[in-house]
Design brief:
The chain is of the alpha/beta class and about 190 residues long. It has 2 domains: about 80 residues, Periplasmic binding protein-like II (D-Maltodextrin-Binding Protein, domain 2, 3-Layer(aba) Sandwich); about 110 residues, 3-Layer(aba) Sandwich (D-Maltodextrin-Binding Protein, domain 2), CATH 3.40.190.290. The chain is about 25% helix and about 25% strand. Strands 1, 2, 3, 4, 5, 6 and 7 form a 7-stranded mixed sheet that branches. The radius of gyration is 18 Å and the shape is elongated. The N and C termini lie close together (about 10 Å).
């Protein structure tokens, strides 16, 4: 996972400054190519038609449903796509990454959701969880988000078909910065 790589890199090179920014895959790719960002962590691999970008699979992320603790579905041990049909789904504000993949998964599971159907969106995991805690809807979130102790929010796994998405480290194909190269070569 990204946190393990950051920890190992920091232990090996404690003087290197790290700055994390949330951005969608397209924004990351543009910023990396412009030299404004060194590495991206994305649900989308580098495009095959862009030789200046490279990506390596960094991890596989599974997802859970985050829901208000008082919601009737909170009593279930696992949830299916059918059970969340008709529920208000909270989305991440970006439409260029995991939400598109999640929407594809929901459609493959038999749900035909209208495009841009979400009334509630947030641009960060904590923002999404705040909306769940406010009882305005459910959200499909990366499983690691469940580590965040957000009051009045519970997490339930999704039944088959399991929703798992590969995440990739994006970077320039010809990287000249030794700190960036060291980060990419950090063993976890």
């Amino acid at each position: 996972m990204l946190a393990s790589r950051i920890q190992a890199f920091h232990e090996a090179r404690p003087l290197v400054r790290l700055e994390l920014l949330e951005a969608g895959p397209k924004t990351q790719r543009t910023a990396i190519l412009a030299g404004e960002l060194d590495v991206g962590y994305s649900a989308l691999a580098a495009p095959a038609g862009e030789p200046r970008l490279t990506s390596t699979r960094a991890s596989s992320v599974s997802f859970l449903v985050a829901l208000p603790a008082e919601h009737t579905l909170a009593k279930c041990q696992t949830l299916t796509a059918e059970q969340i049909t008709g529920e208000e789904l909270i989305e991440y504000a970006t439409s260029e990454g995991p939400d598109d993949l999640i929407s594809d998964w929901l459609r493959r599971s038999g749900l035909n959701l209208p495009t841009s159907s979400a009334r509630f969106r947030a641009d960060s995991a904590l923002g999404v969880l705040a909306l769940v805690a406010a009882q305005v809807g459910l959200a499909i979130v990366p499983a690691d988000v469940a580590r965040a102790a957000v009051r009045d929010v519970v997490y339930r796994p999704l039944a088959e078909p399991d929703l798992t998405i590969d995440f990739h480290l994006l970077h320039r194909t010809t990287e000249t910065n030794p700190a960036v190269a060291a980060f990419l070569n950090t063993s976890i």
